[in-house]
């Protein structure tokens, strides 16, 4: 009998740990890392198949959704209640939230769904606590808030490690790698930029774990881990920010040091007190900004502009997206639109479906009757 997938994963992890990293071994280590990623993905698929039906079934609603993740007892429920008025149970003991509690934060005309997820613990990506369900739910949100307690600042590294292990890539973009599979001819590599971390040997040993014949074009300077990510099926790239709670209980110097370290990781960070409400106005504004939401004020033909209930879209959305969100007929019967505001070249500009909208534009859509 062959060894189980878990045993193979453990054996590869040990071999990577025990192999000295140098020029002669780098392609071997690359191959091992790629094999490890493939086995982990396979193990994950098997576990998911067994655990089907046990996850949280949360219907996405509103204009965007935000998942709040942190250790038990960090103040997630208090924060949710403060921001949304949802009644999430609060207690000074671990695992108060055992289901995902959704609430809606109304801000600048947007309905933003916030999810208070059960407390994450070390080992969550391997299924400890309700880790697997939490991590599965978080894969579908538009923004992750990593919430840590000012007195337990070390928790951030653990949370990041667990999310990384579960295939979540925080504040990263999908690597710019194009893989075109072909019938024969082996693996050919093209790069349109100078590669600092990779050479042809390493790229081929990693790629050979996933494809037999393919043209691979690398269009940015990436690491071997990013190359492995570009082949893996289960990676999710999510905008992320850090919220440090209970700031009133920590001394300022410690807090400032930690904020500086977090910023060095290129993560946006805010300090708040969920109980007293300090910092929550800034947090609301930051959530709106990180979600890259924009407000479009609709002006029906011959009527006044509706400034009370804007249409909420995303940065870089076009007139076409506005039509789609309003009613499917708007796109089908579209004649033209007129825009005034930040995206217009002059006071009122006549535009087509591909015109890119900006925050606080005023938009009129004219359709065929």
Explain what you see.
The strands form 4 sheets. Strands 2-3-1-4-10-11 form a 6-stranded mixed β-sheet, with helices on both faces. The protein has a 5-stranded mixed β-sheet with strand order 13-12-16-14-15. A hairpin with an 8-residue loop joins strand 14 (334-340) and strand 15 (349-351). The chain has 11 helices and 16 strands. By secondary structure, the protein is an alpha/beta fold. Helix 6 (200-207) runs parallel beside helix 7 (224-231). The protein is globular and about 70 Å long. The protein has 3 domains: 5-50 and 175-231, no CATH class; 64-172 and 236-290, P-loop containing nucleotide triphosphate hydrolases (Rossmann fold, 3-Layer(aba) Sandwich), CATH 3.40.50.300; 293-367, Roll (Ubiquitin-like (UB roll)), CATH 3.10.20.
Strand order of the largest sheet: 2-3-1-4-10-11
Largest sheet data: 6 strands, mixed
Low-pLDDT residue spans: 88-98
Mind telling me the CATH superfamily name of the largest domain? P-loop containing nucleotide triphosphate hydrolases
Distance between the termini: 71 Å
Content-based structural category: alpha/beta
Proportion of residues in helical segments = 25-40%
Q: Please state the overall shape, judged from the principal axes of the Cα atoms.
A: globular
Number of strands: 16
| Cα-atom radius of gyration | 24 Å
State the CATH class of the largest domain: Alpha Beta
Our count of helices gives 11
Work out the count of structural domains: 3
CATH topology of the largest domain: Rossmann fold
**H-E string:** HHEHEEHEHEEEHEHEEHEHEEHHEEE
Multimeric status of the protein: single chain
- Estimated share of beta-strand residues: 15-25%
């Amino acid at each position: 009998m062959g060894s189980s997938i878990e045993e193979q994963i453990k054996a590869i992890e040990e071999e990577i740990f025990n192999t000295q990293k140098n020029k002669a071994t780098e392609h071997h280590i690359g191959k091992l890392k790629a094999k490890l990623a493939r086995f982990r993905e396979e193990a994950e698929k098997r576990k998911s198949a067994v655990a089907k039906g046990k996850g949280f079934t949360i219907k996405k609603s509103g204009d965007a959704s935000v998942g709040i993740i942190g250790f038990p007892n960090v103040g997630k429920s208090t924060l949710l209640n403060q921001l949304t008025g949802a009644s999430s149970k609060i207690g000074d003991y671990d695992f108060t939230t055992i289901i995902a509690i959704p609430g809606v934060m109304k801000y600048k005309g947007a309905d933003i769904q916030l999810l208070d997820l059960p407390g994450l613990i070390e080992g969550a990506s391997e299924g400890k606590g309700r880790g697997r369900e939490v991590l599965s739910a978080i894969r579908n949100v538009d923004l992750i808030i990593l919430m840590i307690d000012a007195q337990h600042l070390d928790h951030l590294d653990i949370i990041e490690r667990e999310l990384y292990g579960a295939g979540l890539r925080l504040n990263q973009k999908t690597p710019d790698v194009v893989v075109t599979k072909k019938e024969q001819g082996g693996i050919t590599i093209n790069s349109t930029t100078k590669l600092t971390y990779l050479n042809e040997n390493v790229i081929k040993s990693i790629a050979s774990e996933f494809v037999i014949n393919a043209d691979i074009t690398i269009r940015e300077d990436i690491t071997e881990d990013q190359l492995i990510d570009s082949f893996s099926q289960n990676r999710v790239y999510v905008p992320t920010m850090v919220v440090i709670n209970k700031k009133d209980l920590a001394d300022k110097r410690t807090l400032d040091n930690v904020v500086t370290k977090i910023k060095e990781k290129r993560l946006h960070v805010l300090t708040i007190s969920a109980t007293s409400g300090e910092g929550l106005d800034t947090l609301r504004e930051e959530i709106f900004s990180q979600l890259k939401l924009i407000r479009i004020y609709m002006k029906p033909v011959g009527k006044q502009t509706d400034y009370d209930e804007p249409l909420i879209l995303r940065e870089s959305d076009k007139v076409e997206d506005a039509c789609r969100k309003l009613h499917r007929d708007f796109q089908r019967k579209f004649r033209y639109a007129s825009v005034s505001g930040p995206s217009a070249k002059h006071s009122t500009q006549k535009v087509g479906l591909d015109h890119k909208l900006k925050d606080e534009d005023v938009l009129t859509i004219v359709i065929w009757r």
